[in-house]
Protein backbone atom coordinates (compact mmCIF):
# COMPACT_ATOMS: atom_id res chain seq x y z
CA UNK A 1 0.00 0.00 0.00
CA UNK A 2 1.50 3.31 -1.12
CA UNK A 3 1.07 5.91 1.65
CA UNK A 4 0.88 8.68 -0.94
CA UNK A 5 -2.00 7.17 -2.88
CA UNK A 6 -5.54 8.42 -2.17
CA UNK A 7 -7.77 6.37 0.13
CA UNK A 8 -10.49 6.61 -2.49
CA UNK A 9 -10.56 7.65 -6.13
CA UNK A 10 -13.78 8.07 -8.09
CA UNK A 11 -13.19 8.30 -11.80
CA UNK A 12 -16.09 9.15 -14.11
CA UNK A 13 -18.57 7.27 -11.93
CA UNK A 14 -21.95 7.13 -13.67
CA UNK A 15 -25.39 5.68 -12.88
CA UNK A 16 -28.57 6.13 -14.84
CA UNK A 17 -32.10 5.22 -13.73
CA UNK A 18 -34.22 5.17 -16.89
CA UNK A 19 -33.60 8.46 -18.70
CA UNK A 20 -32.29 10.18 -15.56
CA UNK A 21 -28.63 10.39 -14.56
CA UNK A 22 -28.42 9.99 -10.77
CA UNK A 23 -24.61 10.20 -10.98
CA UNK A 24 -23.15 11.77 -14.10
CA UNK A 25 -19.42 11.15 -14.50
CA UNK A 26 -18.38 11.98 -10.95
CA UNK A 27 -14.64 12.23 -10.29
CA UNK A 28 -12.82 13.05 -7.06
CA UNK A 29 -9.93 11.94 -4.87
CA UNK A 30 -10.03 11.45 -1.09
CA UNK A 31 -6.57 11.77 0.54
CA UNK A 32 -5.53 9.19 3.13
CA UNK A 33 -6.03 10.40 6.70
CA UNK A 34 -8.69 12.93 5.77
CA UNK A 35 -12.15 13.52 7.17
CA UNK A 36 -14.01 14.08 3.93
CA UNK A 37 -17.53 15.55 3.88
CA UNK A 38 -19.89 15.04 0.96
CA UNK A 39 -22.64 17.64 0.72
CA UNK A 40 -25.31 18.33 -1.87
CA UNK A 41 -29.01 19.09 -2.27
CA UNK A 42 -31.68 16.37 -2.01
CA UNK A 43 -31.45 14.05 -5.00
CA UNK A 44 -27.92 15.19 -5.94
CA UNK A 45 -26.66 11.59 -6.09
CA UNK A 46 -24.79 11.20 -2.78
CA UNK A 47 -26.41 7.93 -1.68
CA UNK A 48 -26.20 6.49 -5.21
CA UNK A 49 -22.48 7.36 -5.28
CA UNK A 50 -21.81 5.78 -1.87
CA UNK A 51 -23.77 2.67 -2.96
CA UNK A 52 -21.51 2.28 -6.00
CA UNK A 53 -18.38 2.78 -3.88
CA UNK A 54 -19.44 0.18 -1.33
CA UNK A 55 -20.37 -2.47 -3.89
CA UNK A 56 -24.15 -2.27 -3.37
CA UNK A 57 -24.92 -0.82 -6.81
CA UNK A 58 -23.05 -1.57 -10.04
CA UNK A 59 -21.98 1.60 -11.92
CA UNK A 60 -22.94 2.00 -15.59
CA UNK A 61 -19.50 3.50 -16.20
CA UNK A 62 -16.45 4.72 -14.31
CA UNK A 63 -14.44 3.32 -11.44
CA UNK A 64 -14.22 3.46 -7.65
CA UNK A 65 -10.75 2.57 -6.33
CA UNK A 66 -10.05 1.98 -2.61
CA UNK A 67 -6.36 2.21 -1.68
CA UNK A 68 -5.39 0.91 -5.11
CA UNK A 69 -8.10 -1.78 -5.34
CA UNK A 70 -10.98 -1.42 -7.79
CA UNK A 71 -14.28 -2.05 -5.99
CA UNK A 72 -15.79 -3.83 -8.99
CA UNK A 73 -12.84 -5.82 -10.39
CA UNK A 74 -11.08 -6.57 -7.07
CA UNK A 75 -14.07 -6.53 -4.67
CA UNK A 76 -12.76 -8.85 -1.94
CA UNK A 77 -9.65 -6.75 -1.27
CA UNK A 78 -11.41 -3.41 -1.66
CA UNK A 79 -14.27 -4.40 0.67
CA UNK A 80 -11.89 -5.77 3.32
CA UNK A 81 -10.47 -2.24 3.63
CA UNK A 82 -13.87 -0.56 4.04
CA UNK A 83 -16.33 -0.10 6.87
CA UNK A 84 -19.77 0.98 5.73
CA UNK A 85 -22.76 2.67 7.36
CA UNK A 86 -25.48 2.79 4.68
CA UNK A 87 -28.48 5.10 5.09
CA UNK A 88 -31.80 3.35 5.57
CA UNK A 89 -30.62 -0.10 4.48
CA UNK A 90 -32.45 -2.90 6.32
CA UNK A 91 -30.23 -4.85 8.65
CA UNK A 92 -30.79 -8.16 10.44
CA UNK A 93 -32.90 -6.45 13.05
CA UNK A 94 -34.23 -9.65 14.60
CA UNK A 95 -30.77 -10.09 16.13
CA UNK A 96 -29.80 -8.37 19.36
CA UNK A 97 -27.22 -5.59 19.17
CA UNK A 98 -24.50 -7.95 20.50
CA UNK A 99 -25.48 -10.67 18.02
CA UNK A 100 -25.43 -8.22 15.10
CA UNK A 101 -21.93 -7.07 16.09
CA UNK A 102 -20.80 -10.70 16.44
CA UNK A 103 -22.24 -11.50 13.00
CA UNK A 104 -20.33 -8.60 11.38
CA UNK A 105 -17.10 -9.41 13.23
CA UNK A 106 -17.13 -13.11 12.30
CA UNK A 107 -18.13 -12.27 8.70
CA UNK A 108 -15.01 -10.09 8.57
CA UNK A 109 -12.91 -13.10 9.62
CA UNK A 110 -12.04 -11.98 13.16
CA UNK A 111 -11.48 -14.63 15.85
CA UNK A 112 -14.46 -15.04 18.21
CA UNK A 113 -12.51 -13.75 21.23
CA UNK A 114 -11.51 -10.55 19.44
CA UNK A 115 -15.09 -10.02 18.26
CA UNK A 116 -16.41 -10.40 21.83
CA UNK A 117 -13.83 -7.99 23.25
CA UNK A 118 -14.20 -5.34 20.58
CA UNK A 119 -18.00 -5.72 20.59
CA UNK A 120 -18.19 -4.94 24.30
CA UNK A 121 -15.85 -1.97 23.94
CA UNK A 122 -17.82 -0.55 21.03
CA UNK A 123 -21.17 -0.96 22.82
CA UNK A 124 -19.74 0.79 25.89
CA UNK A 125 -18.14 3.62 23.88
CA UNK A 126 -21.37 4.31 22.01
CA UNK A 127 -23.54 4.31 25.15
CA UNK A 128 -25.22 1.01 24.26
CA UNK A 129 -23.71 -1.13 27.04
CA UNK A 130 -27.12 -1.82 28.59
CA UNK A 131 -28.78 -2.51 25.24
CA UNK A 132 -26.65 -5.32 23.82
CA UNK A 133 -29.32 -7.94 24.63
CA UNK A 134 -32.17 -5.95 23.09
CA UNK A 135 -33.43 -6.77 19.57
CA UNK A 136 -32.23 -4.19 17.03
CA UNK A 137 -35.82 -3.89 15.73
CA UNK A 138 -36.68 -2.39 19.12
CA UNK A 139 -33.85 0.19 18.99
CA UNK A 140 -34.63 3.86 18.45
CA UNK A 141 -33.47 5.51 15.19
CA UNK A 142 -30.38 6.95 16.90
CA UNK A 143 -29.52 3.64 18.57
CA UNK A 144 -29.84 1.89 15.19
CA UNK A 145 -27.43 4.42 13.70
CA UNK A 146 -24.95 3.77 16.52
CA UNK A 147 -25.08 -0.04 16.28
CA UNK A 148 -24.60 0.37 12.50
CA UNK A 149 -21.50 2.44 13.15
CA UNK A 150 -20.19 -0.16 15.62
CA UNK A 151 -20.67 -2.87 12.95
CA UNK A 152 -18.76 -0.69 10.43
CA UNK A 153 -15.85 -0.28 12.87
CA UNK A 154 -15.42 -3.76 14.33
CA UNK A 155 -12.80 -4.98 11.83
CA UNK A 156 -10.74 -1.75 12.13
CA UNK A 157 -11.13 -0.75 8.46
CA UNK A 158 -8.83 1.74 6.68
CA UNK A 159 -11.70 3.66 5.04
CA UNK A 160 -15.05 4.43 6.66
CA UNK A 161 -17.98 5.36 4.40
CA UNK A 162 -20.85 6.84 6.40
CA UNK A 163 -24.15 7.97 4.88
CA UNK A 164 -25.72 10.57 7.21
CA UNK A 165 -24.03 9.20 10.38
CA UNK A 166 -25.40 11.96 12.65
CA UNK A 167 -29.02 11.80 11.53
CA UNK A 168 -31.37 11.09 14.49
CA UNK A 169 -28.41 10.95 16.89
CA UNK A 170 -28.71 12.97 20.12
CA UNK A 171 -26.08 15.68 20.91
CA UNK A 172 -24.26 13.57 23.51
CA UNK A 173 -23.97 10.56 21.20
CA UNK A 174 -23.07 12.93 18.34
CA UNK A 175 -20.12 14.16 20.37
CA UNK A 176 -19.06 10.57 21.14
CA UNK A 177 -19.24 9.67 17.44
CA UNK A 178 -17.17 12.75 16.54
CA UNK A 179 -14.52 11.70 19.07
CA UNK A 180 -14.45 8.12 17.75
CA UNK A 181 -14.10 9.35 14.16
CA UNK A 182 -11.34 11.80 15.15
CA UNK A 183 -9.48 8.96 16.91
CA UNK A 184 -9.90 6.79 13.82
CA UNK A 185 -8.40 9.51 11.61
CA UNK A 186 -5.54 10.19 14.07
CA UNK A 187 -4.71 6.49 13.74
CA UNK A 188 -4.30 6.90 9.98
CA UNK A 189 -7.84 5.96 8.90
CA UNK A 190 -9.92 7.93 6.39
CA UNK A 191 -13.57 8.92 6.78
CA UNK A 192 -16.01 9.84 4.02
CA UNK A 193 -19.36 11.03 5.35
CA UNK A 194 -22.42 12.62 3.84
CA UNK A 195 -24.43 15.20 5.75
CA UNK A 196 -26.89 18.03 5.20
CA UNK A 197 -25.64 19.90 8.27
CA UNK A 198 -23.10 22.41 6.97
CA UNK A 199 -21.89 23.52 10.42
CA UNK A 200 -21.14 19.92 11.31
CA UNK A 201 -19.20 19.30 8.10
CA UNK A 202 -17.35 22.60 8.52
CA UNK A 203 -16.33 21.78 12.11
CA UNK A 204 -15.51 18.13 11.59
CA UNK A 205 -14.13 17.74 8.07
CA UNK A 206 -10.86 18.93 6.55
CA UNK A 207 -11.93 18.12 2.97
CA UNK A 208 -15.28 18.50 1.27
CA UNK A 209 -17.03 17.81 -2.03
CA UNK A 210 -20.16 19.60 -3.22
CA UNK A 211 -22.26 17.28 -5.39
CA UNK A 212 -24.93 18.75 -7.68
CA UNK A 213 -26.83 16.82 -10.37
CA UNK A 214 -24.51 13.83 -10.01
CA UNK A 215 -21.26 15.78 -10.44
CA UNK A 216 -18.70 17.18 -8.03
CA UNK A 217 -18.86 20.92 -8.77
CA UNK A 218 -16.28 21.70 -6.08
CA UNK A 219 -13.98 19.45 -4.08
CA UNK A 220 -10.74 19.63 -2.13
CA UNK A 221 -9.43 21.06 1.15
CA UNK A 222 -12.20 22.75 3.15
CA UNK A 223 -10.59 26.20 3.02
CA UNK A 224 -10.07 25.98 -0.76
CA UNK A 225 -13.72 25.07 -1.31
CA UNK A 226 -15.02 27.69 1.18
CA UNK A 227 -13.01 30.54 -0.38
CA UNK A 228 -13.28 32.72 2.74
CA UNK A 229 -17.00 32.17 3.19
CA UNK A 230 -18.83 29.88 5.58
CA UNK A 231 -19.53 26.50 4.02
CA UNK A 232 -23.25 27.29 4.17
CA UNK A 233 -22.78 30.55 2.18
CA UNK A 234 -20.47 28.89 -0.32
CA UNK A 235 -22.85 25.95 -0.71
CA UNK A 236 -25.83 28.21 -1.35
CA UNK A 237 -23.73 30.23 -3.83
CA UNK A 238 -22.69 27.11 -5.72
CA UNK A 239 -26.07 25.41 -5.68
CA UNK A 240 -28.12 28.56 -6.32
CA UNK A 241 -30.83 29.52 -3.84
CA UNK A 242 -34.41 29.20 -4.99
CA UNK A 243 -36.46 31.98 -3.45
CA UNK A 244 -40.07 31.02 -2.88
CA UNK A 245 -42.81 32.93 -4.70
CA UNK A 246 -45.14 34.17 -1.93
CA UNK A 247 -48.05 34.29 -4.37
CA UNK A 248 -47.89 30.56 -5.12
CA UNK A 249 -48.54 29.45 -1.54
CA UNK A 250 -50.68 32.42 -0.58
CA UNK A 251 -53.39 30.05 0.70
CA UNK A 252 -51.02 29.25 3.61
CA UNK A 253 -51.94 32.68 5.01
CA UNK A 254 -55.67 31.96 4.91
CA UNK A 255 -55.70 31.09 8.63
CA UNK A 256 -55.19 34.81 9.33
CA UNK A 257 -58.65 35.65 7.97
N1 LIG B 1 -33.46 2.94 -7.37
C1 LIG B 1 -33.73 4.10 -7.98
N2 LIG B 1 -34.57 4.13 -9.04
C2 LIG B 1 -34.84 5.28 -9.67
N3 LIG B 1 -34.31 6.47 -9.35
C3 LIG B 1 -33.48 6.50 -8.31
C4 LIG B 1 -33.14 5.33 -7.56
N4 LIG B 1 -32.26 5.67 -6.60
C5 LIG B 1 -32.05 6.99 -6.71
N5 LIG B 1 -32.78 7.50 -7.73
C6 LIG B 1 -32.80 8.90 -8.19
O1 LIG B 1 -31.45 9.30 -8.34
C7 LIG B 1 -31.29 10.65 -7.89
C8 LIG B 1 -30.20 10.69 -6.82
O2 LIG B 1 -30.69 10.06 -5.64
P1 LIG B 1 -29.80 9.89 -4.34
O3 LIG B 1 -30.61 9.12 -3.35
O4 LIG B 1 -28.49 9.35 -4.73
O5 LIG B 1 -29.62 11.40 -3.88
P2 LIG B 1 -29.05 12.00 -2.51
O6 LIG B 1 -28.07 13.05 -2.90
O7 LIG B 1 -28.58 10.91 -1.62
O8 LIG B 1 -30.35 12.68 -1.91
P3 LIG B 1 -30.78 13.00 -0.38
O9 LIG B 1 -29.89 14.12 0.08
O10 LIG B 1 -32.20 13.46 -0.54
O11 LIG B 1 -30.64 11.75 0.42
C9 LIG B 1 -32.67 11.12 -7.39
O12 LIG B 1 -33.28 11.85 -8.43
C10 LIG B 1 -33.42 9.83 -7.14
O13 LIG B 1 -34.80 9.98 -7.37
From TrEMBL:
Entry keyword Aminoacyl-tRNA synthetase: no
Any GO BP annotation: response to antibiotic
The keyword Transport appears for this protein: yes
Species the sequence originates in: Barrientosiimonas humi
Cross-referenced SMART domains: AAA
GO cellular component: plasma membrane
Taxonomic path: Bacteria, Bacillati, Actinomycetota, Actinomycetes, Micrococcales
Mode of membrane association: Peripheral membrane protein
GO molecular function (one): ATP binding
Domain ABC transporter: 8-238
InterPro entries membership: AAA+_ATPase, ABC_transporter-like_ATP-bd, ABC_transporter_ATP-binding, P-loop_NTPase
Full protein name: ABC-2 type transport system ATP-binding protein
Gene3D superfamilies referenced in this protein's UniProt entry, alphabetically: P-loop containing nucleotide triphosphate hydrolases
PANTHER family: ABC TRANSPORTER ATP-BINDING PROTEIN, DOXORUBICIN RESISTANCE ATP-BINDING PROTEIN DRRA
Localization in the cell: Cell membrane
Signal peptide stretch: none
